[in-house]
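User: Can you help me understand a structure? I only have the sequence.
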Amino acid sequence: MSAPTADGTGLFISGQRETGQDVRTGNVTAALAVANIIKTSLGPVGLDKMLVDDIGDVLITNDGATILAQLEVEHPAARVLVDLAQLQDSEVGDGTTSVVIIASELLRRSNELVKSGIHPTTIISGLRTALKEAVKFLKKNMVLKVADLGEDHLINAAKTSMGSKIIGPESDFFAKMAVDAVKSVRMEATQADAAGMEAIAESTTDGVDTKADAAPSKKRYKYPLSAIHILKAHGKSAMESHFIAGGFAINAMRASQGMPTAVEGSDDEPVRIALLDMNLQRHRMAMGIQVVVKDPAEIENIKKREMDITKERIRKIIDAGARVVLTTKGVDDLCMKYFVEAGIICARRCSKDDLKRLAKATGGKVVVTMADMEGNETFDAECLGSCTAVREERIGDGEMLYVHGCQGSGASTIVLRGANEYMLDEMDRALHDSLCVVKRMLESNTLVCGGGAVEAALSVHLEEYATTLYTREQLAIQEFADALLVIPKTLAVNAAKDSSELVAKLRAAHAKSQKGEGDANLKNMGLDLIEGTIRDNLAAGVVEPAISKIKSLRFATEAAITILRIDDRITLAKPQQQ
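Assistant: Let's start by predicting it. Here is the structure, written out as tokens:
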């Protein structure tokens, strides 16, 4: 459509233009459509989605961020929600489904207010006020310190995270594995890391007594998840997955059957590993080089020298003390002969990312070239990694190299076993979420109760708070309070329970708690979706990192405000080709 302006100006918009309520309704409808796709996958009894792409590859998952990443969303407002899920995934690692559901519910309710005559600016101001009050109440009354509660709550948080995933029934086994894996890669934080963690801790513990942590000499630790290597192997059951503490497994095998299957060392005399990112093949002349030979006998000398160059390279690597050689490129039969004679394990075509992780774990370096500053070829022994043993073990259909007793900056490997590719991929995603949750809890040291407890408490508090305001913003705050109840309602509906009755009981318990009546533990009341009742979720072990809730509220509100501010959409038409 072409929309001409005042006569004589000659200005027009080549495209389509939507304004006012039409564009708002369109944006909200698109956002709700996205949220409805993942709504049924929320909670411990949520259902899975099967996604089939254009070439027929199948993905089965109930992870909100993964589902939305696979969808080809064209509507610009709906894409905001997809980006929102990715942001939550990268910042926290868990809570991606709930953040999208809250954002879409806030949009739906805000749109109803706009239809009833409230200006969007008033609604936006009300949402910001409600968010500020919600976060303040959450920090003051709902946040609990992990240090005061003990180690069990780390495992409980991991179990809560994986409760809705494929490994939910075996959550006891995998939660312990996740906690052990994260703790095994603990390292002292740098000054910059420590400052960042302090900022996160302050953002989640305002109003919480942190005097015990105020000691200036207290060390901060970080837990880099990149140091945890997750390897997937077909075969056996999920319960036969295992965790290698201080070790590393690499999906590679010996290049030749003549090589030893294991190289053992000791603490005094470790096994040295050479990590190469170069070819170990017979040296060939570079492209474009011509050699004019007058005597045919010289051709043999050229071939012999090509072989000797490679032999000298390998001799330098062996002389440096390497007993295991891993390379990302090829190794030909000629080179293999020298390694077999020296009794060295050599593996080719290794993943470069795996070698970088292994270099960090063993304290070595990935060597790209052997050339030094003088133009000669040398191999520095400092580039070798150290470990106590390297063994080739049969896993599933193939072999893997296990590196035990890594002596670098810490690395661990989780080897996942499962029936097929879909199951292994979903187990990997579930474990990643749990690892993120444990990392956040260890770094921020705070948690809140799950199962709808936080949302119900905030809803009750914000309804009470709204009545203290004398402006029209109280309408937006009341809608914010009602929107938060979408989480416990959806949890109950997905579990095939009566959502109205359960949410009413939950609100009654939290209202009593906030008035100072009844038991002090009433503030921890959340849903029990198996029995269809409410219970003390702290005692039941349904807990989440406080940072997850706070960030999801902030992200959801900001996304809703971003979409609500739009009152005009101009879609430019593609220029017509002459």
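Now, to help you interpret it: The CA atoms of residues 265 and 271 lie 5 Å apart. The first helix runs from residue 20 to 39. Let me know which part you'd like to focus on.
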